[in-house]
């Protein structure tokens, strides 16, 4: 095993894993790679990475093993045959997962003598290796401190959320709630624009303005939500329902898919039917937090 701080294994060479291995090569690390589809390693091997012939040999090569796989089922599929080689390894698991999966993964690794640091990467592959990009980590603080140079080679900013290996996954998934629903909203807007003869470029200025205005909106609501205040002095849920219905009917009239706007209307309607019509739209948080009530 190579325990030098400048020698790392990367397993999983999708867009993320390839970007990570490349960033480490850029910084002079000796990098061993493994991928189920070996040909994805070609560009990295041409730059000096060593291609391990099996997961066990990839794990055996270095103390630090970065995992960038689709999900934890893939992590298990890859690591189980390599389990005897795991003793003494630090697994930097940057694979997306639920908090429970991350905790179970850390337990499984510990059972084989390895330490897992869970990571949630808040960057696209193009941000890997950049100083401003950011990753949540959780798991043993000692491992975080020990391997910080490698972590900072991947994303310039790193943050240790706590010892619980599920915490990084939790923070990451909170971000992903925002990310996927926002992107879906954007794609719906583009579909509606296209149905009306406009392009994505045509609406870019207005969608960016809407997105930019959200930061201020979040800050306004955060204070009131934490205080349990849902005053309808600025916005009322009944108004929100009427507005969401306009969105739904505009999409329907244009012949655009209505699954997303209909889901939004359904949530607003539940709020009004629960008697919160005169409260702020933020009262929906109470409904979402307790979906049975
Ligand atoms: N891409 C992004 O913008 C982004 C941003 C933030 C976080 N992430 C997270 O980072 C992780 C990696 O992202 P990615 O875009 O590189 O993912 P990806 O395109 O899904 O590729 C990940 C790797 O997983 C491997 N894999 C999948 N199932 C496998 C199995 N059963 N056995 C062995 N290998 C398996 C693939 O191998 P093959 O090459 O053989 O198919 C590939 O190397 C994911 O958890 C993702 O959610 C991605």
From TrEMBL:
InterPro entries attached to this UniProt entry: 6PGD_dom2, 6PGDH_NADP-bd, HIBADH-related, HIBADH-related_NP60_sf, NAD(P)-bd_dom_sf, RedAm-like_C
Residue intervals of the NADPH-dependent reductive aminase-like C-terminal domain: 164-289
Keyword Oxidoreductase (UniProt): yes
Keywords, ordered alphabetically: Oxidoreductase
UniProt signal peptide: none
Ranges of residues in domain 6-phosphogluconate dehydrogenase NADP-binding: 8-159
Keyword Oxidoreductase tagged: yes
PANTHER family registered for this protein in UniProt: CYTOKINE-LIKE NUCLEAR FACTOR N-PAC, OXIDOREDUCTASE GLYR1-RELATED
Family: Belongs to the HIBADH-related family.
Protein name: NAD(P)-dependent oxidoreductase
Record organism: Streptomyces anulatus
């Amino acid at each position: 095993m190579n325990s030098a701080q400048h020698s790392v294994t990367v397993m999983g060479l999708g867009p993320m894993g390839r970007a990570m291995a490349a960033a480490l090569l850029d910084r002079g690390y000796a990098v061993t790679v493994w991928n189920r589809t070996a040909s994805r390693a070609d560009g990295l091997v041409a730059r000096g990475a060593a291609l391990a012939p099996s997961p066990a040999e990839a794990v055996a090569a270095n103390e630090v093993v970065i995992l960038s796989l689709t999900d934890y089922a893939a992590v298990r599929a890859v690591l189980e045959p390599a389990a005897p080689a795991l003793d003494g390894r630090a697994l930097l698991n940057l694979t997306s997962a639920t908090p429970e999966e991350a905790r179970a993964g850390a337990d499984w690794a510990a059972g084989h003598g390895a330490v897992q640091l869970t990571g949630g990467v808040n960057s696209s592959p193009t941000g890997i290796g950049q100083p401003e990009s950011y990753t949540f980590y959780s798991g043993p603080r000692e491992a975080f401190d020990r391997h910080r140079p490698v972590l900072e080679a991947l994303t310039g900013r790193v943050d240790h959320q706590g010892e619980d290996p599920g915490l990084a996954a939790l923070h990451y998934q909170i971000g992903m709630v925002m990310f996927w629903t926002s992107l879906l909203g954007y794609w719906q807007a583009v579909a509606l624009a296209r149905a009306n003869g406009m392009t994505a470029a045509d609406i870019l200025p207005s969608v960016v303005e809407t997105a930019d205005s959200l930061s201020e909106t979040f800050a306004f609501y955060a204070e009131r939500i934490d205080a349990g205040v849902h005053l309808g002095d600025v916005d009322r849920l009944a108004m929100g329902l009427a507005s969401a219905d306009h969105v739904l009917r505009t999409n329907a009239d244009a012949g655009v898919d209505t699954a997303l706007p209909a889901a939004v209307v359904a949530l607003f309607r539940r709020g009004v039917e629960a008697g919160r019509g005169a409260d702020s739209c933020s009262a929906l948080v109470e409904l979402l937090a307790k979906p049975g009530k």
